[in-house]
UniProtKB/TrEMBL annotation:
Residues 121-141, 148-163 have a biased composition (Basic and acidic residues). Keywords: Coiled coil, Signal. This is Colicin import membrane protein. It comes from the Bacteria. The keyword NADP does not apply. Residues 56-83 form a coiled coil. Residues 1-21 form the signal peptide. Residues 121-175 are annotated as: Disordered. The keyword Signal applies.
Length: 175
C-alpha cells in the first residue's frame, strides 16, 4: 500500500513540476506629474515575465545548449551575440536550479506524505488494538456474568429437585 502511494505521489509530482506554468503579468507605465513649483516624473515600472517550470532533464539540456551557444559566440568574437548567449545561459542556469529545487521539494513532500500516512496507519492500528482489547474485556465480563447466572440457576434447580424429591419421599412414607 505504501509503495503504491509513493508511486502515485511521485508520478503526480513529476507531472505537476514538468507541466506547471506560472505567469506574472506586469506592464511599464510612465506617469508625469506637473505642478507650478516643481516638475517631477514618477516612473512606475512593471515587467512582464512568463515562467515555465521545466523538468530537471529538460532544464539541464537547455543549460547545456545555452553553454554551447555561449562558447560559439565567444569563439566568433561577436560581442552582441555573446551578450545574448550569456543572458540565455544565465536564464537556463536559473531554470535548471529551480527545477532541481522543485524536484527536491517534491521528494521531501512525498516523503512527508508517506511518513504522515504511515503514522496515521500506526494510529489506526493502535486504536483498533485498543478497541479489540476493550471488546475482549467486555466479552469476558459478559461470559463471567452468564456463568454466574447459570451457576445460580443450577443451584436453584438443584434445590427445587431436592425439595421435590423430599416431598415425594414424604408422600410415599405417608402411604
Amino acid at each position: 500500500m505504501k509503495k503504491l502511494f509513493v508511486l502515485v505521489a511521485v508520478a503526480s509530482l513529476s507531472f505537476a513540476t514538468s507541466c506547471k506554468q506560472e505567469t506574472e503579468k506586469t506592464t511599464e507605465t510612465n506617469v508625469t506629474v506637473d505642478s507650478l513649483a516643481n516638475d517631477s516624473t514618477a516612473i512606475v515600472t512593471e515587467t512582464t515575465t512568463t515562467t515555465t517550470t521545466l523538468s530537471e532533464t529538460d532544464a539541464k539540456a537547455k543549460l547545456d545548449q545555452a553553454k554551447a551557444d555561449l562558447d560559439a559566440a565567444k569563439a566568433k568574437g561577436d560581442k552582441a551575440a555573446e551578450a545574448v548567449a550569456q543572458k540565455a545561459y544565465d536564464d537556463a542556469n536559473t531554470a535548471w536550479t529551480d527545477a532541481k529545487a522543485a524536484v527536491k521539494n517534491a521528494a521531501a513532500d512525498v516523503k512527508e506524505g508517506v511518513n504522515n500516512a504511515a503514522d496515521k496507519v500506526d494510529e489506526k492500528a493502535t486504536k483498533a488494538k485498543e478497541d479489540i482489547k476493550d471488546a475482549a474485556k467486555d466479552a469476558k465480563s459478559d461470559i463471567n456474568n452468564a456463568a454466574k447466572d447459570a451457576k445460580q440457576d443450577v443451584k436453584e434447580a438443584g434445590a427445587k429437585a431436592k425439595e421435590g424429591y423430599n416431598n415425594t419421599l414424604d408422600k410415599l412414607k405417608a402411604n
